[in-house]
């Protein structure tokens, strides 16, 4: 048998999940100095994962990264197999038979739970649902959000909470030239929300927004961003945190809160967005649907950079009919792959998948949020995927090279036998072109198809 990775015997790799980490893994493999063939499998007919359905519609610049992924997709060594659910339509075991290695890059598809009573009341939603809905993700197309209330509450102070709060704070004019899904824009146009409360369990020095994202709240056309000066008083440990040079982002965030606290509230603006600190939800109350949230005041304890929030027992009530839990994403298990339930990730060593006893499992690798948890910006996934691919390439001599692997052909045989329609990259390009055409008519970058059947009917 020719050497694995040679022209005559290229390394066949199946990657599961076409978000940033999947594309970065494909790029690293294709740019390596060995001969490879990459099959990138995706559950939806559309690629790009959270860049398409997570990045906020008013952050079009961030989506320009797709141009890089398109370059990777144009390589003759790249093949997209979309509209295929790994775990149900085809198993990981089958991918291991058809390919030399499999890289799991399936991301973090669900949310962490708050673990408080009333969390699942009607009116209490996850950020994932709302973000998926306004971004036209087919899984969330038919979700209904009742925006007829005066007050909305967002739990969490990370960038996803910023996205959700900002979308609720913006006017239709601020959103109508983005790629926001039309069904969402229509509902947001009728929104009665006047107050948006963005609640952090720790203090203003620990908010996890990035400075640019928080700054945008100062530029909203019809919404005041409000912080009370007395909420910005820091404990000594937080002061130490903000003096640390490497913590410059938190200092910028804090300074931005200070700037908001000095602003006059403009009464002509129809909405107010309040940033509140040191409180967390204790209970969500309602009979058939959410009516109010009980928030417990917190205090910080612990050394600088290790401060955690503890309830003080003092509570306040906030009447609201709509609440979004935005406290971080979580991975979901895939049949045939080990999963760490506590972390919501696949156990691994630098991307080499292990069982729960830390034994490395041959052929299986992972990258992105399902490898390390939901943190960092899009570009963070590049280094993460490169690390995994380096390990895979180091392992090449250990991979099974005793027989020819069938690669994509074996996948097609299995899918065709089950009558599962699969989509290649050229098929996706047809959908892409149609979406852009539909968008042009409305002055939008694209109008997404939000039902899978609609996408498939365009091919
Ligand atoms: P995140 O940055 O981890 O923020 C989660 C927030 O939820 C934190 O404020 C956290 O507070 C809070 N939280 C966690 N558990 C809680 C609980 N039980 N009760 C109350 N609050 C709780 O997560 P994310 O906002 O989902 O973002 C995920 C990643 O995507 C981040 O790296 C983010 O920067 C990135 N992202 C980037 C952009 C962008 O670049 N524009 C947009 C969206 C997302 P503690 O700090 O106390 O844990």
Structural commentary:
The chain has 459 residues and is α/β, with parallel strands linked by helices. The protein has two domains: 11-109 and 331-423, Rossmann fold (3-Layer(aba) Sandwich); 111-329, FAD/NAD(P)-binding domain (3-Layer(bba) Sandwich). The chain is built from 16 helices and 18 strands. The strands form four sheets. It has a seven-stranded mixed beta sheet with strand order 3-2-1-4-18-17-16, with helices on both faces. Strands 6-14-7-8-10-9 form a six-stranded parallel beta sheet. Strands 11-12-13 form a three-stranded antiparallel beta sheet, with no helix packed on it. α1 packs across α13 (380-394). The two termini are 40 Å apart. The structure holds NADP nicotinamide-adenine-dinucleotide phosphate. NADP nicotinamide-adenine-dinucleotide phosphate is lined by residues 59, 114, 155-161, 163, 200-202, 206, 208, 210, 213, 280, 326-329, 374-377.
Structural descriptors:
single chain, 459 residues, binds NADP nicotinamide-adenine-dinucleotide phosphate, alpha/beta, Rossmann fold, globular, FAD/NAD(P)-binding domain, 7-stranded mixed sheet
């Amino acid at each position: 048998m020719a050497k694995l990775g040679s022209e005559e015997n290229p390394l066949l790799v199946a990657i599961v999940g076409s978000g940033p980490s999947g594309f970065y893994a494909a790029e690293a493999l294709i740019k390596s100095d060995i001969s490879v063939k990459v099959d990138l499998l995706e559950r939806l007919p559309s690629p790009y994962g959270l860049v398409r359905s997570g990045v906020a519609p008013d952050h079009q610049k961030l989506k320009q990264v797709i141009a890089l992924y398109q370059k990777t997709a144009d390589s003759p060594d790249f093949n997209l197999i979309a509209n295929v659910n790994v775990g149900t339509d085809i198993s990981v075991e089958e991918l291991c038979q058809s390919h030399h290695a499999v890289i799991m890059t399936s991301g973090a598809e669900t949310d962490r739970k708050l673990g408080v009573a009333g969390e699942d009341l009607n009116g209490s939603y996850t950020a994932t649902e709302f973000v998926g809905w306004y971004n036209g993700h087919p899984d969330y197309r038919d979700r209904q959000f009742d925006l007829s209330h005066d007050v909305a509450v967002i739990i969490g102070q990370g960038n996803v909470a910023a996205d959700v709060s900002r979308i609720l704070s913006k006017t239709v004019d601020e959103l109508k030239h983005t790629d926001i899904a039309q069904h969402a824009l229509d509902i947001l146009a009728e929104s009665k929300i006047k107050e948006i409360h963005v609640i952090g369990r720790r203090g203003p020095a620990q908010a996890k927004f990035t400075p640019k994202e928080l700054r945008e709240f100062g530029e909203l056309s019809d919404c005041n961003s409000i912080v009370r000066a007395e909420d910005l008083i820091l404990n000594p440990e937080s002061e130490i945190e903000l003096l640390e040079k490497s913590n410059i982002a938190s200092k910028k965030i804090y300074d931005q809160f200070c700037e908001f606290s000095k602003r006059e509230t403009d009464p002509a603006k129809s909405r107010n967005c309040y940033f509140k600190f040191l409180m967390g939800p204790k209970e969500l109350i309602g009979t058939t649907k959410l009516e109010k949230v009980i928030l417990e005041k917190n205090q910080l304890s612990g050394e600088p950079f290790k401060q955690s929030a503890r309830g003080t027992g003092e509570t306040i009530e906030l009447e609201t009919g709509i609440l979004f839990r935005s406290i971080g994403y979580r991975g979901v298990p895939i049949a045939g792959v080990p999963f760490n339930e506590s972390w919501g990730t696949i156990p691994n060593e630098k991307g080499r998948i292990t069982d729960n006893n830390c034994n490395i499992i041959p052929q299986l690798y992972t990258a992105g949020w399902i490898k390390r948890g939901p943190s960092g910006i899009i570009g963070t996934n590049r280094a993460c995927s490169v690390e995994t691919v380096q390990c895979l390439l180091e392992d090449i001599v250990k991979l099974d090279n005793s027989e020819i692997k069938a690669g994509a052909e074996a996948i097609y045989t299995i899918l065709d036998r089950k009558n599962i329609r699969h989509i290649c990259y050229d098929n996706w390009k047809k959908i892409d072109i149609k979406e852009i055409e539909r968008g042009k008519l409305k002055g939008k970058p694209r109008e997404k198809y939000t039902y899978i059947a609609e996408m498939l009917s365009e091919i």
